[in-house]
Amino acid sequence: MWSIALSLSSSLMNQMLMKFQPMNVACCFISAVVLSSDSYLPICLFFLVMRARFYNTWKLNLAMKRKTVVSLVLVLSFVLVPIVNADCIELKYDDEFSNLSSGKAKGYQVAVRFSLPVQSARLVKARFEISINPSDFEVHVYDLNGNDLVPPLTVTPVSQGWYDVPLNIMVPSDFYIALEYLEDSKPYIAEDSNVVQGHSYQRATSADPWSLNIDGNYMIRAVVCYTPPIGGVLISNTIPTIVSWLIAGITTVSLSAGIALKKKRQI
Question: In this structure, which topology does domain 91-227 adopt according to CATH?
C-alpha cells in the first residue's frame, strides 16, 4: 500500500515541481503530511489522482532529472520520518494520578504484567514513576515462565517523577516489567488506587511466585512497537521498507519519463 502511495506521490511531485508555483509546492507538503497516516490514505490517493488529472504537464526537458531527485528527496524526508514511529504506543494500567507509593525491603520485586493484542512486539522503553527516595534499583523483563528476556539492568534515577529505561527487545504477548529493590525502602514507586486493574504484582524474592497487588496499580509502563504494525512501518523493518520505496519511486519516474517521451514524439 505504501509503495503504491509513494509511486503516485513521487510521480505527481515530479511533475508539479516542473513549475515552482506556490499552490504546487503547498500541495507537495500536504501530500507528504497526509501520507503519514493510514487513516488518511484514501483521501491522499484521491487528492493525488485529482491533482494529476487536472494539473498534469507532460514536458520532458533537461531539468527533469533535477526535479526527479528533488521530488524523491521530499517524499522520503516528509513521509519517512513521521511513519517510522507511527506504530509505537505506551501501555499502562494506571490513571496517571498517584495517590499511593510503595517502598519495599531489599530483594523485593514489584511488577506490572502487560498483555498485547498481538503475538509479539518490540519493547523499546520501560517507564517507572518514582515518588520519593530516588535510588538505584534493578530492572527485569520476564516472560510468564519467569525467564529473563534481557539481562537485569541496574539503573540510577536522580529525581522524582518518571524515569525511562531504554530497551530494544522482542517480547511475547504477555510479559512482566519488574523493579527489584537494592536497598530497603528506596526508591518509592508511585501507585494509584482509584480503579484496581489487576495487572500489578509483587513478591518477596525472585524465587517466589507472584502475588496480585489488590491495593492499587504500580505506575510502571511499557513503550512497545507492534508486529505487525497498527498503521505505519515497523522500526525493525525500516531498511527493507526504504529499499521498497526507492524501487517504487525509481519505477514511477522511469514510467513517467517513458510516457512523457512517447507523448512528445506523437506531437
Answer: Jelly Rolls (2.60.120)
